[in-house]
């Protein structure tokens, strides 16, 4: 009976007939979220949130716990695959104007903040060299907040330096926040189903809708098969492709790595942070690099929803994508010329996209009116 109800639910969920593969990344993200929650639960059973034992407990999980290496690698690789799908999902929303479903977009951006916080806390838990020093650099940014910065930092650390209480708090937050992610994801999906999906043409799809099953459920299954195959291929042949070599050494406060950097999925924000010499300005730019997504629904000026028929906007969008990748690349390089200059120019271009896109929309509107 339950299977019949499930099929009935899928059949009663009408969606646009022309949505493409780019719309499958939402279900891929849901699968990644479930996989991260399950593997994280089994890892938490064996993990010890103590600065003297954390590094050893990760090694114990990998070497001694039955199938622990699978759980540990799936969780680590799954985080990277999660963010690959997130960034593609966001890019699709920007390109096709999905952000005009305001409630869906705003809930999704809020979800992104929670995801990034959860990933940051999780990156610290192995207590390797890069985990420790990345946490030191990022948490120190709170001291830039006027008046209460030092108090906030001390509260987050649980003392006057990153120590045992810090690791315990980060572990607790990393365990609790996934429940917030599940709740926010549920809200995000419910809002999506109430407002309806967008489509590549950016038109009203009410006149041409088809049942979700079997037309789109099969596409979801295909993309999920590709995702899981990619994850297990990476896990089998290059499990450490996303890991920093420094993190295979236990955290040592007396030895500073030559180049401190976070995980690759934070590098775009980290690159923007370090491109500004002022600490408070850099911290504000780091937060704004994600928060600026919230402005997209309110600054859309074009008469057309999608960029599919806006060649100038397409050029600007792909410039934005190239800029994102450039900032990510420069953040892996030392803070010296020419990388500092490239990072500053790329950061400027990153933020300019959200300013020039509305202006370009107004220009396109005038051109279209003059031709009609």
TrEMBL record:
Keywords: Electron transport, Heme, Iron, Membrane, Metal-binding, Mitochondrion, Mitochondrion inner membrane, Respiratory chain, Transmembrane, Transmembrane helix, Transport, Ubiquinone. Binds 2 heme groups non-covalently. GO terms for biological process: mitochondrial electron transport, ubiquinol to cytochrome c. GO terms for cellular component: mitochondrial inner membrane; respiratory chain complex III. It is a multi-pass membrane protein. The chain crosses the membrane at residues 41-62, 74-92, 104-125, 132-158, 170-192, 221-242, 311-329, 341-363. Heme b b566 binds at residues 89, 188. Heme b b562 binds at residues 75, 174. InterPro entries: Cyt_b/b6_C, Cyt_b/b6_C_sf, Cyt_b/b6_N, Cytb/b6-like_sf, Cytochrome_b, Cytochrome_b_C_euk/bac, Cytochrome_b_N_euk/bac, Di-haem_cyt_TM. The keyword Mitochondrion applies. Residues 202-371 form the Cytochrome b/b6 C-terminal region profile domain. Its cofactor is heme b; heme. GO terms for molecular function: metal ion binding; oxidoreductase activity; quinol-cytochrome-c reductase activity. Signal peptide: none annotated. Its main location: mitochondrion. Residues 1-201 form the Cytochrome b/b6 N-terminal region profile domain. It is found in: Mitochondrion inner membrane. Component of the ubiquinol-cytochrome c reductase complex (complex III or cytochrome b-c1 complex) that is part of the mitochondrial respiratory chain. The b-c1 complex mediates electron transfer from ubiquinol to cytochrome c. Contributes to the generation of a proton gradient across the mitochondrial membrane that is then used for ATP synthesis. Belongs to the cytochrome b family. The cytochrome bc1 complex contains 3 respiratory subunits (MT-CYB, CYC1 and UQCRFS1), 2 core proteins (UQCRC1 and UQCRC2) and probably 6 low-molecular weight proteins. PANTHER family: CYTOCHROME B. This is Cytochrome b. It comes from Telescopus fallax (European cat snake).
């Amino acid at each position: 009976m339950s299977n019949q109800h499930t099929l009935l639910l899928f059949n009663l969920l009408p969606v646009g007939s022309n949505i493409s593969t780019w719309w499958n990344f939402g279900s891929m993200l849901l699968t990644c979220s479930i996989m991260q929650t399950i593997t994280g639960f089994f890892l938490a059973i064996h993990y010890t949130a103590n600065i003297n034992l954390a590094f050893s407990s990760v090694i114990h999980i990998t070497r001694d716990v039955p199938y622990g290496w699978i759980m540990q690698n799936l969780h680590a690789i799954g985080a990277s695959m999660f963010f690959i799908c997130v960034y593609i999902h966001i890019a699709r929303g920007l390109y096709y104007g999905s952000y005009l479903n305001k409630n869906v977009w705003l809930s999704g951006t809020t979800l992104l903040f929670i995801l990034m916080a959860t990933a940051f806390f999780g990156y610290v838990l192995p207590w390797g060299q890069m985990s420790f020093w990345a946490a030191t650099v990022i948490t120190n940014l709170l001291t830039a907040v006027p008046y209460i910065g030092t108090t906030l930092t001390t509260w987050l650390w649980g003392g006057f330096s990153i120590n045992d209480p810090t690791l315990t708090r980060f572990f607790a937050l990393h365990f609790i926040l996934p429940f917030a992610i599940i709740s926010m994801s549920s809200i995000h999906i419910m809002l999506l189903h109430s407002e309806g999906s967008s489509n590549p043409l950016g038109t009203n799809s009410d006149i041409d809708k088809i049942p979700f099953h079997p037309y789109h459920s099969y596409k979801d299954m295909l993309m999920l098969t590709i995702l899981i195959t990619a994850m297990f291929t990476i896990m089998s042949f290059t499990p450490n492709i996303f890991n920093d070599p420094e993190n295979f050494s236990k955290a040592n406060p007396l030895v500073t790595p030559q180049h401190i950097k976070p995980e690759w999925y934070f590098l775009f924000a980290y690159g923007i942070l370090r491109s500004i010499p002022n600490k408070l300005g850099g911290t504000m730019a780091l937060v704004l690099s994600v928060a600026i997504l919230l402005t997209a629904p309110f600054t859309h000026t074009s008469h057309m929803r999608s960029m599919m028929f806006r060649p100038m906007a397409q050029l600007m969008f792909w410039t934005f994508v190239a800029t994102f990748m450039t900032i990510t690349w420069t953040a892996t390089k030392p803070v010296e010329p020419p990388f500092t200059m490239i990072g500053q120019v790329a950061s400027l271009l990153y933020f300019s996209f959200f300013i020039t896109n509305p202006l370009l929309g107004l220009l396109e509107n005038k051109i279209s009116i003059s031709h009609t």
